[in-house]
Structure formats: C-alpha cells, structure tokens
Design brief:
It contains 2 helices and 21 strands. It has 286 residues and is mainly beta. A 9-stranded antiparallel beta sheet has the order 6-7-8-9-21-18-17-12-15, with no helix packed on it. Strands 5, 10, 11, 13, 14, 16, 19 and 20 form an 8-stranded antiparallel beta sheet that branches. A 4-stranded antiparallel beta sheet has the order 1-2-3-4, with no helix packed on it. A hairpin with a 5-residue loop joins strand 17 and strand 18. It starts with 13 loop residues before the first strand and ends with a strand. 6-O-phosphono-alpha-D-glucopyranose binds next to strand 19 and strand 20. 6-O-phosphono-alpha-D-glucopyranose (G6P) binds next to strand 19 and strand 20.
Length: 286
C-alpha cells in the first residue's frame, strides 16, 4: 500500500491531524490533497501505491480538489489547477475543547493561475476531524473586481476491501449522464448502486446524503453528507483503464470507488467580492 502516514513525507509537505484515539487525517499541501482519513485505525481513503509525489502531477488517490473546472478544460489541465498547486498552511492543526482537530489551508491566484484563468480568487479549505467524522469545507472567494465562473468537485477515492461487495445508497431516481456510453440521460433505478465495470457517471440534483457500504475485511459504512454539492460522480476505471494509467495500481480498481461531491453540471457565478461555500462530511457509521 502507498505511504499513507506522515512519516513517509518531508515534514513541510504534509499536515497531520491526530485525535489520539485512532482517528487521524493527513493532508498533502500539493493540491491540498487529503491522502488519509483513519477512523478507529481503519484507513478509509484509497491512495495508489504508484502515485507520483513530485509536487507537479496530481496525487492519485485521497481527495484531490477539482477547481476551477471539473473535467477537460480548454484553458488548462483536466480538473483545473487547484490539485496541482502548492497550498499554504493558514491554521496548523489545533485542538478544541472536545478534542476535535481543525486545520486550514489556502490557495490564492498567482502569475501561473492568471496565465490560465485571469481572475483573482482565494480558496479556503477547512478540515475538522471529529471522533467518527471528517468535515471538509471549501470556500471560494472572488477577490477580483469582475465576476468569475467555475465548477468544483471533491474527488474522493474511497478505499474498500472488495469492490464486488460495495454499494452506494442515495442515488435512486436521479438522472445521470454516462460519460462512458454517452447518449441520453438515464434514470437510476437501483436503491443500491453496485459497480461491476468501468463507471464514469454524473448524477444530478442528488440529495445531500449518500452512503457507501462495503463488506469484507475491514467492512466500511460511510455516510457522505454534502452542502452546496448537488452532483455526485461515481467513477471506477476498472481493469483496462487502470492499466492504461501510469500512476494507478493494475489491481487497484478492486479496492476503491470514487464517490465525488460536485458542483459540476451548472457552474457557479460569483460577482466581485462574493463567496461560495460547499462542504462534505464523512461519518463512519460502524
Ligand atoms: O485521471 P484524472 O484526470 O485524475 O481523472 C480521473 C477521473 O475523474 C473523474 O471521475 C471524471 O469523471 C473521469 O472522467 C476521470 O477519468
């Protein structure tokens, strides 16, 4: 398995949050990519063992942030630049009276971002680690004197013991676009969505709670509660695409599922000085 604890990284590259009861989180400042969330000692995030940590390429796994664009982008790299920029640690891990840990990282425009996307902005990403939960809040500030538009998404790679026992609840009745087959939107008929091939589906207008369940050892049941993320992308590259990606374990598709909270179908428009807040909270229900 990939290095998923703080000891494998130069100290200045990662932010380690630890409650001391088997609950911890590890964020890499490259892309503000959360690369580990352990709940009672169980790792819930998938990180490819072949992920490249060169502070250039996006980290393959954890929770990369897509901003200011989800998907192919004519102005710059796929999924935007937030996942490949170095973020700044604004508030180092701080414990409150309940024992919860808070940390804040930020990203602001610079010459490189403005060459692609000519706007001034500030992103503030706040993590709060509780006993069974991790809340991640992204606030986008328009610090420019003109309006800007964007799409954004938290690209969570969940770790599961066995994809064949994994389901996602909460998507029934929603329309989705299937990016693999193309064509018309389809209505999801299943209460429990199981993934048995290459999936790349964008579910629209989802309720704010979905639940990922997986048996095997260890079993997992994780509630994903969102705010201002109306879309859910379900992605698994499966065997052929996994092999095609240089930074994805050949067999890794059997041990992961991406359930991505997004604001991707309808972009956000922010007037000068305005801000937009969105969040997702993982809660282990076991
Ligand atoms: O390889 P990446 O740029 O990290 O993208 C990985 C995947 O991200 C999302 O899930 C998209 O819906 C997929 O179309 C894409 O293949």
């Amino acid at each position: 398995m990939a290095k998923q604890d703080a000891s494998g990284f130069p100290a200045g590259d990662v932010v380690f949050m630890e409650r001391g009861d088997g609950n911890s989180a590890l964020l890499h400042l490259h892309g503000a990519t959360l690369i580990s969330w352990k709940c009672h000692g169980v790792e819930n995030l998938f990180l490819s063992s072949t992920s490249v940590f060169d502070n250039k390429k996006a980290i393959r796994g954890g929770v990369p942030i897509a901003f200011p664009n989800f998907g192919p982008w004519p102005l710059g790299p796929q999924h935007g630049f937030a996942r490949i920029k170095r973020w700044t640690l604004a508030v180092p891990p701080t414990k409150d009276a309940k024992g919860d840990i808070l940390a804040v990282v930020t990203l602001e425009d610079d010459e490189e971002t403005k060459a692609m996307w000519d706007y001034k902005f500030k992103l503030v990403y706040t993590l709060v680690l509780s006993e069974k939960s991790l809340m991640s809040t992204l606030v986008v500030h328009n610090t420019d004197t003109k309006s800007l538009g964007f799409t954004t998404l938290l690209h969570t790679y969940f770790r599961v013991a066995d994809i064949n026992t994994t389901t996602v609840h909460g998507l029934k009745g929603l329309k989705y676009t299937d990016k693999i087959t193309g064509g018309q939107d389809v209505v999801e008929a299943r209460d429990l969505v199981a993934v048995d091939r290459n999936y790349d589906r964008v579910y629209k207008d989802a309720p704010n709670v979905t639940v990922l369940s997986s048996s095997g050892e260890p079993a997992r049941k994780i509630e994903i509660k969102t705010f201002n993320f109306p879309d859910v992308v379900v992605w698994n590259p499966w065997d052929v695409k996994a092999k095609e990606m240089g930074d994805f374990d050949d067999e890794g598709y059997k041990e992961m599922l991406c359930v991505e909270a997004g604001k991707v179908v309808n972009p956000v428009t922010l007037t000068a000085g305005a801000q937009f807040e969105c969040s997702q909270t993982f809660t282990s229900m076991l």
